[in-house]
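Figure caption, in words: inputs first, then the predicted bound structure.
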Amino acid sequence: MTRSRRSLRHLGGPGRWARRLGVVVAAGWLAAPVFAQIPPAPGDALPGITPAEFELFNLGLEDFLEVEEPEEGLGPAFNGTSCGGCHNVPAVGGISPVSELRAGMVDADGVYTDFDPDAGSLFQLFSIPSHGCQVVIPAEATVIARRVPIPVFGGGLVDAIPDETLLALEDPLDLDRDGVSGRAAIVEDLATGELRVGRFGWKAQRASLLVFGADAYLNEMGITSDLFPREQSFGIDPALMRLCDPVPDPEDVEDRATRRRGIDNFESFMKFLAPVGRGPTDAQVRLGEQTFDAIGCAACHVPVLETGPSSNPLFDRQPVALYADLLLHDVGTGDGIAQAAAAANEVRTPALWGLRFRRPLLHDGRAATVTDAIEAHAAEAALAREGFDGLDPVSRAALLAFLGSL
Ligand code: HEC
Ligand code: HEC
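Bound structure (heme C present):
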């Protein structure tokens, strides 16, 4: 991992807050309560972070933006050359129009399997081509699916929601008979070996930012770490892989000066990255939010969860207004790929915060508009969708205004 020692110049953070407030900050810092007045803009750090945390945030931002080269371990197969390359709209941490490819097989009994249980279902788009290291979808594939990026704004708050909170929202057998039967994704946290509730990714495949970042470093960029020490490129002979990528594994090692791995830096950036603040609210938006609740959208898109107790005030019992239960549901849109704890027909409820900055919608990007996304809801979300279809024009406009304010 190379790192340029740039000064602590940054898009969000104290300087920007100060400029917005029209204050000259001689010592480079302002007290937290002042920041708390104005909602953060996309890309800002969490209001109230300490100078030491802000330094970690910036170190992480640099690594998140750093474009990797083959000499640093990029490849042999990869989808992108930096985290920021796919996560940058409307600011670093967001999305991009990229979509990725997954594929697998469904047998005569309808059972899904990956071609390679180690490499999973991802087929990287690019390769270091020197020795023929491009992964290719086998002709036996019966399922091919696309996935669009998910923004990482507010990631630290999502990370800090206790497993018990998500478990309490579960209703796998639909005992309350509302048609909605969310399931928590129980996955292994590779950093600790513990079983945790997955919450990151379209399939809730990872439980923590650290592990998601390490997974992305390997699977998106081909960079191994001690959490994911083996290069994975479906169907490519290991000897060939070494020719395409001769850098010894793990490729992401501690930086001598900072004693931190790239994956630690990614985690810090995402942890201290603020959620996207709400747009303006008015009477119509408030009516729309009531409608959202009344027709059953909030059964899955739970408006607010809370972080657990923490010694860090940023994460100590803080409200997280993400509009999601982070559980797995069948809403009739499943991509046919079983992954981690998620069945082929299940998708994790996506957070709706920051929705106004996100297009296309749904896991595969098939929906151009919010209405298209809602109309795609079926199965567990059938009642809510019928509720939407039955709205009078005033309520419908209000609901869409509410969604447009997120
Ligand atoms: C080629 C594009 C691409 C690159 C490069 C990329 N990502 Fe992503 N990111 C995605 C996609 C697509 C998803 C959704 C994946 C899924 O769930 O199947 C995603 C999801 C995520 C999530 C889950 C967010 C949530 O709330 O569920 C995190 C965290 C994340 N990426 C972090 C990173 C980090 C850190 C890096 C760099 C090491 C990175 N990404 C590199 C495309 C990319
Ligand atoms: C049973 C749970 C459930 C209910 C009820 C539900 N949703 Fe969803 N919603 C989901 C899931 C799961 C997805 C992701 C589907 C996918 O990507 O394939 C989703 C996706 C969305 C998206 C797209 C978000 C994105 O980032 O792509 C929007 C917008 C949305 N829902 C709004 C609504 C509205 C409005 C209602 C009420 C009419 C509603 N949902 C009811 C579970 C639910």
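Residues 180, 295-297, 299-301, 329, 331, 333, 347, 349-350, 355, 358, 361-363, 370, 373-374, 377, 380-381, 384-385, 388, 403 surround heme C (ligand 2) (CB under 6 Å).
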